[in-house]
């Protein structure tokens, strides 16, 4: 299972193995856990989708985006030790002309969100896939100023803060926070590996 190619046929995202995690295609059995994690208010504040995700919304996302949108390569993150589902990650909004994609990651198991072990390992695998397999020129991430965990993770992976959009995201409380934009270029990635 994976993304549809240009002709509408299904293509698979590869299985990727790191030091602590494996990345594999998301399967229907993953959907409910991923949905529950995404609906946690303490996690949801960090995501673009600010509403509770219903089972129907989750199924539609899976069928239309994960399986059929060639601009999205999503993975389930599993613990290499026991293959337990930990979270999800992916490269989204893939722009073939500009050779760029949005970097997305979260860990839902064990209240991790972003940790010091699984998240960095996942990030390295995703970057390797993006730059070495997909031959991207730039990988970027948009996060919110309240997301201190990703503000630590992204620079550790080589990302640079490119800029901010002031008060561009409205929190559930009504408060506005800045959006931070990080980027990593293929040349900078090559220097780091």
According to CATH, what is the topology? Aminopeptidase
CATH first level: which class? Answer: Alpha Beta
How does the helix and strand content classify structurally? alpha+beta
- What gyration radius follows from the Cα positions, in whole Å? 16 Å
How much helicity do the residues have? 25-40%
User: How is the biggest beta sheet arranged?
Assistant: 8 strands, mixed
Number of helices: 6
Number of strands: 8
Tell me about this structure:
This protein has 193 residues and is of the alpha+beta class. The chain has one domain (16-192): Aminopeptidase, CATH 3.40.630. It is globular and about 40 Å long. It has an 8-stranded mixed β-sheet, with helices on both faces. It has 6 helices and 8 strands; from the N terminus they run ββαααβββαβαββα. A hairpin with a 5-residue loop joins strand 7 (160-170) and strand 8.
């Amino acid at each position: 299972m994976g993304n549809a190619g240009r002709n509408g046929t299904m293509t698979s995202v590869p299985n990727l193995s790191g030091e602590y995690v494996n990345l594999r295609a998301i399967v229907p059995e993953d959907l409910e856990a991923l949905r529950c994690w995404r609906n946690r208010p303490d996690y949801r504040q960090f995501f673009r989708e600010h509403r509770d995700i219903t089972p129907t919304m989750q199924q539609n996302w899976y069928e239309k985006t994960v399986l059929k949108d060639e601009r999205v390569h999503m993975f389930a993150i599993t613990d290499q030790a026991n293959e337990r589902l930990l979270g999800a990650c992916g490269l989204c909004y893939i722009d073939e002309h500009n050779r760029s994609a949005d970097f997305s990651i979260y860990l839902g198991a064990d209240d991790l969100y972003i940790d010091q072990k699984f998240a960095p390992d996942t990030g390295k695998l995703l970057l390797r896939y993006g730059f070495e397999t997909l031959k991207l020129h730039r990988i970027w991430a948009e996060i919110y100023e309240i997301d201190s965990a990703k503000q630590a993770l992204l620079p550790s992976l080589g990302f640079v803060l490119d800029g901010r959009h002031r008060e561009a995201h409205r929190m559930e409380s009504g408060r506005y926070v800045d959006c931070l934009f990080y980027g990593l270029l293929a040349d900078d990635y090559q220097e780091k590996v």
